Every structure is written in C-alpha cells, then in structure tokens.
Amino acid sequence: MEETLDKLLKNAELTQCACAPGVVAEALERLAAGEAPARVLDDVARFDAVLLVRSAALGAAAGDARCVRALLLALPVADAAAFDAYLTLWRASLAVAALASALAARTGRVGTDIAWRAGLAHNLAAYLPGRAAEAAALAELSARWVAPLDPDGWVGDAVRHHAAPLARGKSAHPLVKVVQLAHALATREAALDGLDVRAALGALGIGAHEGAQLLADAQAMGEAQATRFALTADAARPAGAYGRLAHAYAGAAAASAVRDYLFAAETAESLSRALLASLRLLFGARIACVFEREPDGELRVTPRFDPPQTLTHLSVAADDGLSVLTRALRENRATRFAGGTDADAVIDHQIARCLGVEGFCCQPLMLGRARPALLVCDGAIDAAPALWAQFVAAWTDAEGRFASAAGAPPASDAIPRERVRRAIHEVANPLTVMRNYVNLLSARPGMDVSVQRDLAIIGDEIERVARIVRGITQAEAPVAAASAAEPASVNAVVSELVRMALGTLFAPNKVSVGIDLDPALPLLAIDKDALKQVLFNLAKNAVEAMPSGGHLRFATRRVDSGGQPCVEIEVADTGPGLPAAVRAHLFEPVESQKGGDHAGVGLAISRNLVARMGGRIDCETGPGGTRFLIHLPAPQASATAAVAQSGTP
Predict the structure, then answer these.
(1) Distance of CA 472 to the CA centre of its chain
(2) Phi, psi of 411 (to 5 degrees)
(3) Distance, CA of 549 to CA of 511 (rounded, Å)
(4) Does position 174 have pLDDT exceeding 60, yes or no?
(5) 3-state DSSP call for residue 116?
(6) Helices 385-407 & 240-263 angle (0-180, nearest 10)
(7) How far apart are CA 256 and CA 237, in angstroms?
(8) Which of 3, 5, 507, 536 has its CA 20 to 30 A from that of 475?
(9) Concatenated DSSP letters for 442-471?
(10) Within 13 Å of residue 618, how many CA atoms lie on the same side as its CB?
(11) Residue 570: helix, strand or coil by DSSP?
(12) Whole-number Å distance between alpha carbons of 262 and 251
C-alpha cells in the first residue's frame, strides 16, 4: 500500500520543489508594476527550473494576472539554512542550460530554446527538499515532470539520460546528445581533457579551445544572473524569526490571491475553470470531479469539470461504510484512497480506474444552499494544509454567490448588514498583514531614511483605510463632528498627499504638479484622514479630466471669509472645465458617467467631510480649467500664534 501511495504522490511532489527567492521576487515585482504576466513568465521563468515547468502548465491562464500572482505567492522558495547547497544546484541548472543552448546552435538540428529548457530542467527533481534517492530515480522523476515542456517527449528523454556516458547517446536524438555533452562539460572536472568529450565536441566541429570558451561564457552568464537575482553566496538572507514571519505573510498573501482569483469569476462556468486551474497549479491535481448526495441518499458524480462518461454509471450507497467517499462525508474530513488492500471497497477501485489514477483524495464541501458534496481529485492536498483549507473556504464562498443569485428575490439597492460586516472582516485580514509587513520592513537595520519615510506613508495609508472600513459598520451611531479632530498642519497633509500620489497617480498620467504653501499657516483642529481623502478625490478627478496630461496646482493661504479667518486650500487643474450638466449637480450623489469603479459620490462625500470640519468647498470652472477652493476655519490671530508650517514632496 505504501508503494502505491508513493506513486500517487509523485506527480504532486513538484508543488513542493523549491524556487529561487530572487527569481520569484522579480516576477512578483514586475507583475505588480503592471507588466503582462505572460511576458514576465517568459523572461523570468527561464532562469528557474521549477518555475519553468510549473508555469508551462498554465496554458491560456498565463495571461491572467490573478492566476499567475496566486501561483507565484504559493511557490515554496529555498530554505535560508540550506541556501549554499541550493545555490550550487541552481548554478548547475543554468550552466547546463547555457551550454546546451550554445551547442544546439552549432548543430543546427535542434532549437536553442528547447535545448535551454531541457538543460535547465535536467536536475529538476533535485529541488525537492529532503529528497534522498539515487541519481537514476531523480532523473526518471524529473523526466515525468517535464512532460508539459514537450509533448513529443524529447525533453523528457534528454532529462532522463542527461548523465549517461556520451558513447551511449552517439545515435540518440540531437537534443539528448547536446544535453549529455552540456552536462559533462558543466559538471565533470577537467572535462575537456576527456577523450569522450573531445570526440563529442569534434563531431560538432568544435575544438578544445572553443569548448573552453563556451564553458567560460556559461559560467559568466551564471554569475550575471546570480547578481541580477541577488543569489550570490554572500547575499544577506532573512533567517530565524524574520524568515518565519515572512513565510507567514507569504501564506496569507497566497490565500488572499486564491480568493481574489476565484471571486473574479462572473459566471458559474468561469468559476469552474478557475477552480480547475487552481487545483492543477497549486496542488498538482491532474483530474478532478464532484460527487453530490442525491435525494435517494446515493452519491453520484455531477457534470462539474467534465468527468469521464464511465463515472456516470456508478453510485455510492449511503450505507457503504467501506468507501472512502461515505467515510469522508460521515467524518467531515479529507480522506485518501491509495488502494492496494483487500479491505478496500470495490467502488473506490472502480472510481480510480474510471479517473485513470491509482489513488485519489476526497474533500467534503458544502456548496450552494447547503448541498453536501465531495471533491475527488489526485492532488497533494496535504502538502500545504493551510493553503488547502483557505482554498476550500474560498470555493464555498464563491459558489454561494451563484447559488444565491439563482433563487434570490429581485435585487435591492440595500446591502444586508451582515454581508457588510463579513466583507469588512475579509478586508481587515489582508490590511493587517500589509501593515505588519510594512512595520517589519521599516525596522530592518540599515534602512535608508527616505525609504523609511515612504514606508511610514504607506503604513499611515493602510491604517487610514482600516479606519474607514471599520467606520462603515458604525454609520448608524451618532459621531461628533470633531471626534477625530486634532491639531494638524494643513501643509503637511497636502505635501504628504502629493508625495504619495506623485509616482502612482500624477506621473503615470503625465500630470505635472506645482505647490505653493504658505509657511505661516496656524495648526488647525481637523481630521487629517478626512482632509487627505478630500484632496485625493479632487486630485483624482482632476487627473481624469486631463486624459492627455496637464498641470495640477496645490496652494494654501490665509484668507478672511465673511469676517472669519480661514485657511484656504486651492486645487486647480488645466482641464477643459466641467460641462453645465455636471455643474448643476456637482456635489450631489449621482450615477457616474465615467464607468469602471466610479460611484459618482466622490464630491458629495468630500463636501460632507469638509462640512464636518466646519468648512465649505466651492468650485470655479471654465474652458481654462477647474478650481476647487476649500475653506477651513482658523483660530483668531490674537488667540493663537501662527505656527510655521512647511512641507515639500
């Protein structure tokens, strides 16, 4: 039975192989910067054997940023404690890949790209942590895993026989020969002195001197990529408590990415595709189906995931105490069928045969309208138990949306309070992760002062979002207008807003920014978060009004308004001005004409926030642009001395 179980796990073991932390980091950074996910994978995955093979299974999903992000965040990376051994392994992968590609170019009979891939993946199974097996067994396992790279099987052959004596591959496929020769050059001491290596090079018209140059070029390329991905032996690496904490953050981020990916599905059909992709990519499942309990108590397969037609002829009796399916439902826990004993239920063997697997896992589910069901798949659900639990929970929640829509009464604009509370709870978790991670980064020794300042701004913004979210459920409770008021610098709020939005809102949209801040403004008793939200709303509207770019000006000054001293904040753009229809309902919550995520309530919210601070907001608009003026009451000069304020982004 243990032997059968080992066979069942072999395909899923790939999900446990470690990747290079620097390679994964660059891929995530470039994805976050907005690069096309397929392009990122094409450029980055070619330097990491595990990522190369796992991303090859994405297919069309390689263009889905959510799916790629989920895969990257779920990838295990090299353990810092064993990093030196990992680095040796990674360098060997790159050296063989570079040499195989260069040799392929000389033969002209095999593509350089496929040669690179075969060379990179030649030692794929060696990335499995704690794997103690002979080289032949690892080569065979690697050959099985690289199947997505080449349906014709030549890459698998090259990986399987990469360490065989060169004489054995004399008449083999050209890809096998170049990978064998590349491996010999990269791993054997004084390989160029060997008669077999010289003969193999000579067959390609390459002399010993040129072979030495190819080897030197491959080693130089490896050094360059090690520097690029910060994978040098003396690179600072997180360890101890920091590493454990960072790993916990990565797990939370992976779960968030999976949930985001599933909840992006707009139909039941697209959800099924997302579920199948998640099972395949994150847990190594090659096949999956869903059984549901029918009114007669029997378990039967559903059309979900297009199961084999033969499965529709089978049903599992409710009183079949031997079947792992009924046992999983009864005990409400994941159960595995590995086969190999006389005590197994015959129906379980038949299900395995119909699915074309030796064993499978059963995971109880509760789908829409409390329908008990079972997921049956061949994945390694116990390889990442925390991620698996999050995946099952996200699946149940995502499924419930469509079930509710199918039998729900006519839609209402009102959102149930419990649903709001649940959404707030879900939002609070990733916010906490982000805030803690920012704090952790800020505390790292040697951090540049400017970077610490930027991280402080990010942390403040995360906390501001958290306060806004928490405040949603308190909307019914009367809140004093000045409950969040505190002495604050208006100039500092303006400067911080400009600095925060410079690289994310203004520069990408070709909007230049000018500021003119009165350094003699007094401190005001205001809600800083509210004022920042107002300014950001105005800035965002101004940028959207200048689709081809323009200029945005922020200014502060002391003025008198109706005989009362005030601080005036000006936000002016060089756009075309507001249409008459928009001006007529400027500060009213109306349906936005912008589309996308615009709710049409930004200015209405801004007016209310300013009013709570005892001020008012006005607008002047014309063909030359639009100017918003915010007036906030200031203390009498005789009662409060002016406090110098300054701030530049």
Answers:
(1) 28
(2) -60, 145
(3) 5
(4) yes
(5) helix
(6) 20
(7) 25
(8) 536
(9) HTSTT--HHHHHHHHHHHHHHHHHHHHHHH
(10) 7
(11) strand
(12) 17
In angstroms, the CA 631 to CA 559 distance is 9
3-state secondary structure of 30: helix
Amino acid, single-letter form, for residue 376: V
- Residues 6 or more apart whose Cβ sits within 8 Å of residue 14: 50, 53, 54, 124, 145, 284
Q: Coil, strand, or helix at residue 630?
A: strand
The DSSP result for 541-602, as a single string, is HHHHT-TT-EEEEEEEEEEEETTEEEEEEEEEE-S----HHHHHTTTS----SS-TT--S-H
DSSP code per residue over 301-352 = E-STT---GGGGG--B-TT-TTSHHHHHHHHTS-EEE---STTS-HHHHHHH
By residue count, the chain amounts to 649
Say how far apart CA 290 and CA 302 lie, in whole Å: 6
pLDDT tens-place string over residues 454-499: 777 777 777 767 766 666 555 443 333 344 567 889 998 998 888 8
pLDDT at site 354: 93
Distance CA(454)–CA(456), nearest Å, equals: 5
Helix (H, G, I), strand (E, B) or coil at 616: strand
Distance CA 176, CA 194 (A): 19
Please tell me the distance from the alpha carbon of residue 152 to that of residue 243, in angstroms, as a whole number. 41
Q: Radius of gyration over alpha carbons of the chain, in Å?
A: 31
Q: 555 and 624 in contact (C-beta within 8 Å)?
A: no
Strand 550-561's sheet: what is its strand order? 511-516, 550-561, 564-573, 625-633, 616-622
Q: Which of 562, 535, 538 is nearest to 634 (CA)?
A: 562
Please name the amino acid found at residue 41: L
Tokens of 245: 């904490």
Task: Report pLDDT digits (tens) over 556-587.
Answer: 999 987 778 999 999 999 999 988 878 777 77
Q: What average pLDDT does range 300-309 have in this prediction?
A: 91
Query: For residue 238, what pLDDT is reported?
Result: 46
- The Cα-based distances of 611 to 380, 392, 485 in angstroms read 57, 46, 13
φ/ψ of residue 315, rounded to 5: -150, 150
Whether the per-residue pLDDT at 95 is higher than 80: the answer is yes
Helices (H) and strands (E) in the chain, counts: 23, 12
Question: What global pTM score does this model have?
Answer: 0.52
Instruction: Centre a 10 Å sphere on the Cβ of residue 481 and count the other Cβ atoms it contains.
Output: 11
Token match 């079949």: residue?
Answer: 320
The SS3 call for residue 297 is: coil
DSSP 414: P
Please identify which residue in the block is written with the tokens 């409390």: 370
Cα separation, 559 vs 632, in Å, equals: 10
- Cα 198 to its chain centre, rounded Å, is 47
Q: How high is the mean pLDDT of the chain?
A: 79
Question: Which residues, listed in sequence order, are joined to residue 618 by a DSSP beta bridge?
Answer: 629
Question: pLDDT at position 133, please?
Answer: 61
Q: Residue 378 carries which DSSP code?
A: -
**Six-digit token string for 167:** 């004489």
Bridge partners, residue 625, by sequence? 622
DSSP 415-442: PPHHHHHHHHHHHHHHHHHHHHHHHHHH
Tokens of 458: 């990010």
- Rounded CA-CA distance 390/396 in Å is 10
Return d(Cα 303, Cα 624) in angstroms, integer. Answer: 61
